[in-house]
Amino acid sequence: MVTGAAGMLGRDVLTAAAAAGLEPIALPRVELDISDAAAVDAITRELAPDVVVNCAAFTDVDGAEEKEHQAVAVNGPGAGNVARAAAAQGAWTIHISSDYVFDGAKRSPYLESDPTAPESAYGRSKLAGELAVARSASGRHTIVRSAWLFGAGGPCFPATILRLARQREELTVVDDQVGCPTFTGHLAPALVALARDPIEGIVHVAGGGRCSWYELAGEVVSNAGLSCHVLPGSTAALGRPAPRPAYSVLRSERPGVPELPPWREGLAAFMEAGVPS
Ligand SMILES: NC(=O)c1ccc[n+]([C@@H]2O[C@H](COP(=O)([O-])OP(=O)(O)OC[C@H]3O[C@@H](n4cnc5c(N)ncnc54)[C@H](OP(=O)(O)O)[C@@H]3O)[C@@H](O)[C@H]2O)c1
Questions:
Q1: Virtual CA dihedral for 14, 15, 18, 22, nearest 10 degrees?
Q2: 30 located within any domain
Q3: CA-CA distance, 130 to 126, in Å (whole number)?
Q4: Is-contact 258 193, C-beta < 8 A?
Q5: Does residue 66 lie in a domain region?
Q6: Nearest atom of ligand 1 to the alpha carbon of 74
Q7: Ligand 1 proximity of 250 Cβ (cutoff 6 Å)
Q8: pLDDT at residue 274 in the model
């Protein structure tokens, strides 16, 4: 059972599960609002899934600064509703969390055992979700922290860069945030592998390697053969409402956690498949 099934990751989880011979059940937001505990209970009881993958979330990072209450309701107690209902049916919960639970002050990869310290409302809401899932799932859960997602199923950074690079001669992109771009076409099969062979607790699963948004934009433009110049800029000059971690490279210290291909391979696969406009 996949919640948030019409989202960017949710769509690829459905595809990956079907490709693996499973029978995924799609629950987009119009069919299930995860902040409605009674509805989550009723539908989970009715469908009796083996595994629930919670891809539903309030994902507007800047919007969450003004709507923290709304973001927390979905990403915190909402995630808890999903885990509690799954546990009541004996199902395993796979919940997706984020690199934004860290403050970004480290300069070596964040491991599962590193302390969390979110700086944004979105990060706080995602941490609330991790705690709610851990509390509600009776030990039958995997919390998968990932980062910088891009994929065919939704608006994403590489698609935006491609559109802008076709319109402009010059683009300025921040070079003072470093992370792990992650192709949802690579993350989704890893989630399916975890559904089949579960690991309890928190795991880090993100694209291999690391880069800044500036480097990622440069790779998009060069892969597309465009002549637009990409220039490095600063986060401060951009003036976005939500603070972002300056460094949020994720690596796993836990045995058996699926490793994803390097982000450049993810980007190449994404662009080969045809970027949605
Ligand atoms: N995107 C990233 O860079 C990134 C990085 C790290 C972790 N993550 C996590 O990865 C997961 C998937 O994100 P994504 O990138 O696929 O985001 P997305 O495309 O925004 O998908 C999230 C989906 O959840 C739905 N949703 C929102 N509120 C809901 C509610 N109350 N009940 C049920 N569904 C609801 C949204 O529906 P509407 O569109 O109708 O609102 C949307 O279809 C999320 O947990 C996110 O926090 C994302």
A1: -40
A2: yes
A3: 6
A4: yes
A5: yes
A6: 31
A7: no
A8: 76
At 277 the pLDDT is 58
Residues of the chain with pLDDT under 50: none
For residue 170, list its beta bridge partners.
229
Give every CB contact of residue 69 below 8 A, 6+ residues apart in sequence. none
Q: Which secondary-structure segment (H or E) carries 176? A: none
C-alpha 53: how far from its chain's center? 12
Whether the Cβ atoms of residue 231 and residue 171 lie closer than 8 Å to each other = yes
125 lines ligand 1 (CB under 6 A): no
Alpha helical stretches, state H, 59-120: 63-66, 68-73, 79-88
Question: Considering the domain boundaries, does residue 163 fall inside one?
Answer: no
Taking residue 19's Cβ as centre, other Cβ atoms within 10 Å add up to: 11
Predicted local distance difference test score (pLDDT) of residue 276 = 63
How many residues would you count in the chain?
A: 277
Within 13 Å and on the Cβ side, how many CA atoms surround 1?
A: 26
Q: How many domains does the chain have?
A: 1
User: Is 265 inside any structural domain?
Assistant: no
Q: Is the CB of 189 under 6 A from ligand 1?
A: no
Closest ligand 1 atom to Cα of 73: 31
Domain hosting residue 137, numbered range: 2-155+182-208+248-260
pLDDT at 273: 85
DSSP assignments along 112-145, one per residue? TTSPP---SHHHHHHHHHHHHHHHHSTT-EEEEE
CATH code, domain with 253: 3.40.50.720
Residue 159: per-residue pLDDT = 96
pLDDT at residue 212, rounded to an integer: 98
By annotation, the residues acting in catalysis are: 122
